[in-house]
Amino acid sequence: MRLEVFDLELVLQIAKTGSLTQAAQQAAISLQAASERLKKIEQQFDIKLFSRHSSGMQLTFAGESFLEYAQEIVQRSHSLQQHMLQFSSQQKQQLCLWCNSSAQSEYLPKILPEYLLQNPQLQIELQEAESTDIVTALTQGTAQLGLVSSFFNTEHLQTLEFAEDPLVLICPMQHPLAHNTQINLADALHFAFIGLKQYHSLQQSIERQAQQLGYGIEYRLRLPSFSAIAQVVADGVGVAILPQRAAQQLQSLYPFHYIHLQGAWANRKLLLACRHFDELPVAYQHLSEFLMEKRALLAPI
């Protein structure tokens, strides 16, 4: 067996968490694959790295010695990757991150500037698309890495939870619903809506939920952006459904009230997705690691 840095990182995660399951999740591989990798390492050196207890996995004496060298090798590997990125080409290196409209407008502008400042040789193109199209592009290999809504089927991809992205209902300040702090979709469907264009996946998911409840949505107006919708709602024309983060930011510009929507469909998440994280090009692995490290900054406002 050829020992890889990935294997050393897996051992470090097991030692850190005391759990093979958690280490496998962090490494974005199956529990079985993680178990087999650990077994092969132990067979190669004819040692036991961990002992198993009810409280979790604990390093053996040999494991502690192994861990010391593994930490140094992993640190040097990361340093080498970071250092050599700037020499990978005489031209700027371009990455393409596919993302839905919510990720592009509400989340990535908050964290990507730091990454670009840390990596002056990189250029990042944000390819905005509907979540369904991103899933297709990842599946077909057209895209390497993408941010998609958890509302859509990604079972055939590897995903990591990137951010909470719940939906809220917004209404005029003097609207009959304005006294509510939370609401079921069915209780709002008697009112006229302001919506996104028909092709937008968010609007499609809202309409699908309404159909399951036996309702159709009456649209007074369809608009291309969250900002335009917020302005029209504030003017008293109707109600609308937006991502919570967008609604919170737009409240500083337009006077409206927002109400939490109940139900699993509305409490969606943004997922970082690809076919296989450990098979991504190094630059994309580095970007995905950065995004996951910074997700704490994306907590609700």
UniProtKB/TrEMBL annotation:
GO terms for cellular component: cytosol. Keywords: DNA-binding, Transcription, Transcription regulation. Residues 1-60 form the HTH lysR-type domain. The keyword Transcription regulation applies. It comes from the Bacteria. The lineage of its organism: Bacteria, Pseudomonadati, Pseudomonadota, Gammaproteobacteria, Moraxellales. This is HTH lysR-type domain-containing protein. The keyword DNA-binding applies. Pfam families: HTH_1 (PF00126), LysR_substrate (PF03466). Belongs to the LysR transcriptional regulatory family. GO terms for molecular function: DNA binding; DNA-binding transcription factor activity.
